[in-house]
């Protein structure tokens, strides 16, 4: 059994640690991912201690050099992490102490593992936010890049998975560009709250050591310091908020994946998926399965589950730090990994897919996509909306019985429905003319869509 006295906290203890406890409580198997952030934070802490007179310049230089050397060893894969040392922080500190003796033991002056862990985790999340933001920007560019390729293509828009109104393909691509744009805004807002330094709040009450938290904050590019030590020690809002933003990103990806899975079926035939992101069947030779899209949709469940776990994790925890909080990192790591991989692959699929123009055009006049435009045409000549809705509904019923589009009805039939329906109805019937009839800001009107495409190209740094 491992000796309690060999632990960094073991002075007051008698007896040995049950090895089952060590296996149960270790976190180095997953928090080793924080090593770069841990070393960076410790270097900033050591330099601050030297500035405040708690370390000599020589001690500072020895610690900084030792930490940098350990970082290189971990990156090279030659560093041995030990389970009995519990976490990445103690593994790094123990190795430093083995090499520097009492000089290494001075590093932990004025801090606790509570604020050290929180600092490392905030640094890691900040990096993950930046990576995710860049990947989302690439996905947005992939959608906006399609706008030149698919200019002028009209798609059926759906509500309740029933054909509703015509929309430009570019309007559809921009809809997802907007969704991922809001995700990027949420990431930026989350980053602002993440980017507050907890180091120096120590275990829960602060420290009597003369430290300079602002010095460390500047060295680590934090925008400020956490104001309350009790709050800092117990806080995981920043991690849960990040997990929430990742969940919304995953949900948006899942919606997109579901639509493109449907669009790639023989029933829709709207889309040809790039084969590099599909797989086949072990028994059916004709199959081209949209496995990447299905997995993006499926992995969303993991991200949602991770967020739920985090919310339950902090439910009812008393102030300040509790060991429960150790369980936050596997959930956040998994969500970040999952979303990053999903967004990266999504951009590749968006770039490589092709719309099946003939199949789309062949069935575009089905579903009476121009019915709402015809109703609004009637409203514009003074007919109340509810009355116009009923009149056009009856005309759609006539056309459905004959299995013809509205544009195939005779003028006499329109005028029998309402005298205001004169020859001008034919200027708004048919999907192409219905598209041209739109005029509201944010609509699928060609001029509005073209303006939005230009704006997004400018925002994303794309050629006009």
Automatic annotation (TrEMBL):
Q: Name one GO biological process term.
A: L-arginine biosynthetic process via ornithine
Q: Which reaction is this enzyme known to catalyze?
A: 2-(N(omega)-L-arginino)succinate = fumarate + L-arginine
Q: What is this protein called?
A: Argininosuccinate lyase
Localized where? Cytoplasm
Domain Fumarate lyase N-terminal, by residue range, is 12-305
Q: Name one GO cellular component term.
A: cytosol
| Pathway entry | Amino-acid biosynthesis; L-arginine biosynthesis; L-arginine from L-ornithine and carbamoyl phosphate: step 3/3
The primary gene name is argH
Q: Which GO terms describe its molecular function?
A: argininosuccinate lyase activity
* Family per record: Belongs to the lyase 1 family. Argininosuccinate lyase subfamily.
Q: Gene3D superfamilies of this UniProt entry? A: Fumarase/aspartase (C-terminal domain), Fumarase/aspartase (Central domain), Fumarase/aspartase (N-terminal domain)
Pfam families found in the cross-reference section:
ASL_C2, Lyase_1
Keywords, sorted A to Z: Amino-acid biosynthesis, Arginine biosynthesis, Cytoplasm, Lyase
């Amino acid at each position: 059994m491992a000796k309690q006295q060999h632990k960094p906290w073991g002075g007051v203890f008698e007896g040995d640690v049950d090895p089952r406890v060590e296996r149960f409580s270790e976190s180095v198997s997953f928090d080793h991912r924080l090593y770069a952030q841990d070393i960076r934070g410790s270097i900033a802490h050591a330099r601050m201690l030297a500035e405040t007179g708690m370390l000599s310049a020589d001690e500072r230089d020895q610690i900084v050099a030792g930490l940098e050397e350990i970082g290189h060893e971990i990156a090279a894969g030659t560093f041995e992490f030990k389970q009995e040392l519990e976490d990445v922080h103690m593994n790094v500190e123990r190795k430093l102490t083995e090499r520097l003796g009492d000089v290494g033991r001075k590093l932990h002056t004025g801090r606790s593992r509570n604020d050290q862990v929180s600092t490392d985790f905030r640094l890691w999340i900040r990096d993950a936010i930046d990576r995710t933001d860049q990947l989302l920007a690439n996905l947005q560019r992939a959608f906006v890049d399609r706008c030149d390729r698919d200019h002028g293509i009209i798609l059926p828009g759906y509500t309740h998975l029933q054909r509703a109104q015509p929309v430009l393909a570019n309007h559809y691509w921009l809809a997802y560009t907007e969704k991922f744009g809001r995700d990027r805004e949420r990431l930026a807002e989350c980053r602002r709250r993440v980017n507050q330094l907890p180091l120096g709040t120590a275990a829960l009450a602060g420290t009597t050591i003369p430290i300079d938290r602002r010095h460390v904050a500047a060295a680590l590019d934090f925008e400020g310091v956490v104001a309350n030590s009790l709050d800092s020690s117990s806080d995981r809002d920043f991690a849960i908020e990040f997990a929430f933003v990742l969940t919304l990103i995953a949900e948006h990806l899942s919606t997109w994946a579901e639509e493109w899975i449907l669009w790639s079926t023989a029933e829709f035939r709207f889309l040809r998926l790039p084969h590099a992101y599909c797989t086949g069947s072990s028994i059916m030779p004709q199959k081209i399965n949209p496995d990447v899209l299905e997995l993006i949709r499926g992995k969303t469940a993991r991200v949602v589950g991770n967020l739920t776990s985090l919310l339950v994790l902090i439910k009812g925890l008393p102030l300040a730090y509790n060991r429960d909080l150790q369980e936050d990192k596997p959930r956040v790591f998994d969500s970040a990994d999952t979303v990053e991989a999903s967004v990266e692959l999504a951009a590749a699929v968006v770039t490589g897919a092709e719309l099946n123009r003939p199949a789309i055009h062949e069935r575009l006049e089905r579903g009476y996509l121009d019915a709402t435009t015809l109703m609004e045409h009637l409203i514009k000549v003074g007919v109340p909306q509810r009355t116009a809705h009923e009149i056009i509904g009856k005309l759609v019923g006539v056309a459905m019985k004959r299995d013809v589009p509205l544009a195939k009805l005779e003028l006499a039939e329109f005028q029998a429905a309402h005298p205001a329906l004169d020859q001008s109805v034919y200027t708004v019937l048919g999907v192409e003319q219905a598209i041209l009839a739109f005029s509201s800001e944010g609509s699928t009107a060609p001029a509005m869509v073209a303006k939005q495409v230009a704006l997004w190209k400018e925002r994303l740094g794309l050629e006009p």
